[in-house]
Amino acid sequence: MSDEFFLSPAMLGLFGLCIGSFLNVVIHRLPLMLQRQWLSDAAAEVSDADGLGKLVQLPAVEAEAIAAQARDLSDRIERLPQLSLALPRSQCPCCGHQLAWHENLPLFSWLRLGGRCSACKARISIRYPMVELLTALLFAALSWRLGPAPLTLLWCGFAACLVTLAAIDRESTLLPDCLTQPLLWAGLAAALLGLTIPLTHAVSGALAGYLSLWSVYCLFKLATGKEGMGYGDFKLLAAMGAWLGWQMLLPIVLAASMLGAVVGIGMMALRQHDRNVPIPFGPFLAVAGLLVLFAGQPRVLGWLGWA
Fold it and tell me: N or C: less crowded end of the chain, CB within 10 Å?
């Protein structure tokens, strides 16, 4: 069999369904793993009564009482069941029912079960089939757009990472460094190997992507005293700059801002969102990055009159 078959839109679409199923595991478990680790690290720091007392100037009795509670919390965390991307097996979050192989088929199992657990009949989030379907469509579209070539797999990895980051940010307002930083370095490495864009464009894109949003963040905080976005947004835009080049950063930010404004206004108009609660910007950046990728640099720059 040739690359034309294995990397065809149909085959990459099927592959995307399987990858989407794994992405759902990452989306659900990675934030929990990180939050558990952060809580464990914090408890370990607070468990030192002497250090705590000196740091916040507490009396020795109060510092020891707080440290004892922190040690108890640390012990409780250590006794929790193991949690990783591999363990435990996929199960219903409501009743703990372990999924059989036929209940874990991408997309088809959700449809066959009617979106409910086979044991307790609790609803299964529509996010699961949506991520699987979206990943399949993106992989198939990339094969159609770029051709059935091995390099297409590289861009499939880029798209899969954006889908994962967007979903995690939407659900937990986190953009984990363990995803954004490898995505950034992979973009620079791909450019260095001559697989994507010129290396100078990739490095410039990474620098400009980070510094542009960081500057906006600093100016907004100086003007309002509030944080308008998180550091993960800077790193995500830097990663997209490394993959797509500095020329594509302004179109990405403009498209993401317009999408965010439309969605935010719509949610507030329908009273589905409190205006005092920030809306994660990462999903809009990810969608804008994918739109720019599929449109292509010549077309995007032509729209801006830069061609």
Answer: N
